[in-house]
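Work Package 4 report. The design task specified in the project plan requires that, given a folded chain encoded as structure tokens, an amino acid be chosen for each position. We show below one input record used in the internal validation round.
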């Protein structure tokens, strides 16, 4: 066979290409290839070592060994499920726990109420931006006094201070003393923002105190339901109040 013929025959041969393994079958192991014997050998030895370790662990296990999962677990549909233990408490113990809960929430509510009173005392119930306008009623005897009524004269102050409900000095005080405190508009705006933040905090504390009061009522209702006295629900529980029950009257000795 000439060299030219061998060269032409070799050119007609198709190159051998290894087929790629699909990604969905990668979990089944390495695909049989000619050039992956090292990878397959490494995978084989890794699995054999894992089997030997499991066999050794099973041989070293004490057959008389006891652990609590033996009695707390069971097999359902081939799956181990841990049994949920029921809390063994008496009705008296439940009532005591409810009482402790009520005392704790009530203590927190009283502490919140004290903070609210302290914050009110600091703010002196000043008007904040966006709050509802208060009304001040003045009583007169005749319609003529109504027509000629001047609020600045009645309050003995200047017209510029009529709209203020706090720190409203009289004319005599203004003539006798000078205005004290900041007069810079930027400083006044900063103080107004601080006062608004304080009122927002006061509003949040009032809402929190109301929520704690509702929680206390709901816990007390659940505690009363532990009694075996016949009862009928009158009103469902809401986010702002507990459920209302009507209990059968029993005469106490």
């Amino acid at each position: 066979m000439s060299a030219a013929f061998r060269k032409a025959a070799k050119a007609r041969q198709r190159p051998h290409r290894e087929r790629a393994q699909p990604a969905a079958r990668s979990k089944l192991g390495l695909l049989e290839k000619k050039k992956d014997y090292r990878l397959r050998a490494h995978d084989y030895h890794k699995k054999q070592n894992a089997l030997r370790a499991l066999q050794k662990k099973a041989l070293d296990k004490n057959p008389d060994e006891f652990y609590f999962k033996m009695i707390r677990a069971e097999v359902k549909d081939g799956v181990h499920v841990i049994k949920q233990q029921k809390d063994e408490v008496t009705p008296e113990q439940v009532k005591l726990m409810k009482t402790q809960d009520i005392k704790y929430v009530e203590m927190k509510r009283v502490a919140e109420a004290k903070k609210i009173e302290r914050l009110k005392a600091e703010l002196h119930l000043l008007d904040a931006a966006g709050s509802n306008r208060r009304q001040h009623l003045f009583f007169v005897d005749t319609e003529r006094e109504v027509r000629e009524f001047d609020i600045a004269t009645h309050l003995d102050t200047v017209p510029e201070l009529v709209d203020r409900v706090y720190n409203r000095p009289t004319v005599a005080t203004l003539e006798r003393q000078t205005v004290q405190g900041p007069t810079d508009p930027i400083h006044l705006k900063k103080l107004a923002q601080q006062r608004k933040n304080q009122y927002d905090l006061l509003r949040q504390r009032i809402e929190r105190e109301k929520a704690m009061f509702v929680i206390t009522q709901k816990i007390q209702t659940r505690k009363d339901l532990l009694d075996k006295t016949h009862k009928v629900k009158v009103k469902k529980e809401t986010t702002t109040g507990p459920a209302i029950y009507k209990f059968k009257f029993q005469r106490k000795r």
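The mean pLDDT is 78. Validation will be extended to a larger panel in the next phase.
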